[in-house]
């Protein structure tokens, strides 16, 4: 017995048409067609399809599923595009950060090397310089003699043999250039810096001062610390001074 899926009745003795989806027989009356309608539609177009109610529901659900899948595919494609763009942006930021860190590392290495090279140097200010330019030999000998006298004033037992000196910068008609003094090691530098206050008691050398041979970055940092101290003093703090702790200038409270 053949059962129509639309009405669930026997179609054995009735005019029927197979469902184009499941091939089950359908009463013509269940699909609203006459035999002439069937002949006419079949002769005119094979594209006209007849389906039962069950298959029609399945086809609708299938179409909905296809639409859902297509929407999900579009959503996934959009997400992948956005993720790729975000990944590429973050990768680019990371590369920029790595390059900056690499440049910063190179700067640090260069600064450390430069400071190491300057550790055994002193810079001396206020040493008179002949305004009438002498030949290089006589000018150097005069500076050598002046520097040795000043160092002996600070430390009378200092062995001044083989020290090297050099005027820094261009000659000026109004101001003596500082002198770079190359000592044997950084301990001698620290000793002279520590005892440089003895120059204040020397009538001949009281205008002379000495300093570490600082890099431009150290000079800038010292200026910053000095400005910070001035601001604090202007705000009412007292007894502040700059003290070098492990070679780094810091603002400290004076005990006096």
UniProtKB/TrEMBL annotation:
Transmembrane segments: none annotated. SUPFAM superfamilies: FYVE/PHD zinc finger. It comes from the Eukaryota. Gene3D superfamilies: Zinc/RING finger domain, C3HC4 (zinc finger) (3.30.40.10). This is Zinc finger PHD-type domain-containing protein. It comes from Zophobas morio. The lineage of its organism: Eukaryota, Metazoa, Ecdysozoa, Arthropoda, Hexapoda.
């Amino acid at each position: 017995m053949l059962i129509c899926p639309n009405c669930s009745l026997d179609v054995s003795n009735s005019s029927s048409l197979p469902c184009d989806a499941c091939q089950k027989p359908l009463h013509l009356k269940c699909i609203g067609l006459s035999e002439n309608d069937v002949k006419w539609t079949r002769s005119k177009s094979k594209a006209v399809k007849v389906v039962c109610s069950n298959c029609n529901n399945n086809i609708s659900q299938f179409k909905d599923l296809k639409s859902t899948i297509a929407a999900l595919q579009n959503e996934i494609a959009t997400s992948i595009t956005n993720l790729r763009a975000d990944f590429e942006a973050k990768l680019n930021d990371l590369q920029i950060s790595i390059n900056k860190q690499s440049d910063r590392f190179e700067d640090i290495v260069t600064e450390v090397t430069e400071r190491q090279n300057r550790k055994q140097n002193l810079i001396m200010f206020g040493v008179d310089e002949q305004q009438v330019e002498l030949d290089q030999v006589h000018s150097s000998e005069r500076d050598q003699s002046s520097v040795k006298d000043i160092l002996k004033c600070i430390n009378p037992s200092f062995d001044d043999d083989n020290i090297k000196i050099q005027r820094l910068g261009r000659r000026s008609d109004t101001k003596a250039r500082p002198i770079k003094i190359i000592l044997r090691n950084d301990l001698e530098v620290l000793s002279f810096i520590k005892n440089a206050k003895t120059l204040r008691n020397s009538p001949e050398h009281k205008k002379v001062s000495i300093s570490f041979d600082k890099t431009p970055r150290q000079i800038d940092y010292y200026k910053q610390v000095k400005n910070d101290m001035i601001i604090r003093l202007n705000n009412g703090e007292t007894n502040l001074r700059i003290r070098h702790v492990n070679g780094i200038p810091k603002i400290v409270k004076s005990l006096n």
